[in-house]
Amino acid sequence: MPVDDIKPTDALRHYIGNEQDQSKHRPSYGGGRFTGKRKYPAPKRNINDVTSFMNIPQDELTPAVTEAISSLMEEVEELREELSMTQHFEQKLSATLDKHMDLPVLTRHALMREVAVIAAQTQRSGAQATFIYFQIRNFAEIKKRFGLLAGETVIRETAQILQPQLRETDRVGTLGGDGFGIVMALSDVKHALEKVRHLENLVKRGPIMHGAHILDVEVAYGLHSLHLTEEIDTILHETDKDLHRRFVRL
Questions:
Q1: How far apart are CA 182 and CA 221, in angstroms?
Q2: Whether domain 108-247 has CATH 3.30.70.2750
Q3: Which residue of 1, 19, 79, 81 has the fewest C-beta atoms within 10 A of its own C-beta?
Q4: Collapsing DSSP states into helix, strand and coil, what is residue 227?
């Protein structure tokens, strides 16, 4: 059935009429208009601003025209406020989704996005950036000996050690399981290696406790310089290869 052929039911007839009648039945938010949060208050426009912009002569502004323009201006202001509120909630939701539910780090999806963003920034600026795969090397052994909760403790405590040690320009997120990804902006591989060795010592010293047990944590890591032309999978693969070169005996 075409949309135009759909007739309103009796339940909707009360709401059908001119704009003035419809506005009586709109829900109000917070006792008034639906208002959004703005960093700066929106400039208020008067009818002279609008008529001047539209080149409408003042002598043609009949009461009916003036009322119509004023009504439109009010509608525009309401739409601006609703858009501002929508954008505010969208930003909050995006920030919430980027954060891991249980750890003070980014999710894998958010981390991969930041890798691409920082790689693009380094390409434009000519600076260098490095991606680090930071792995709990004996994660499986810890879980086998002390249980699943001990493994969760190691991951949580490691995340809490890593996060405050990084600069605001750096990013850290989970790669799932026993690994973290760290993006060190404005750092070449040499300086990133110095930093990751410092992070390794902090995690190994801990102490990371599980009940009455001190968990001896072993760390492995791989590094790869970021380039704009590389795919995410390539970056992860090259970083993993570097980790194996450093810590796995063939």
A1: 10
A2: no
A3: 1
A4: coil
Angle, helices 63-98 vs 108-125, to 10°: value is: 100
**What gap in Å lies between CA 161 and CA 158, rounded to an integer?**
5
Distance CA 201, CA 158 (A): 11
Structure tokens at 16: 């059908």
Q: Find tokens 């920034």 and name the residue.
A: 121
| Lookup: tokens for 73 | 């201006």
What's CA 132's distance to the chain center, in Å?
A: 21
Are 132 and 239 spatial neighbours (Cβ–Cβ below 8 Å)?
Answer: yes
Question: What is the distance between the alpha carbons of residues 215 and 221, in angstroms, rounded to a whole number?
Answer: 19
Task: Give 163's DSSP letter.
Answer: G
| Global pTM exceeds 0.85 | no
Structural domain spans, the chain: 9-98, 108-247
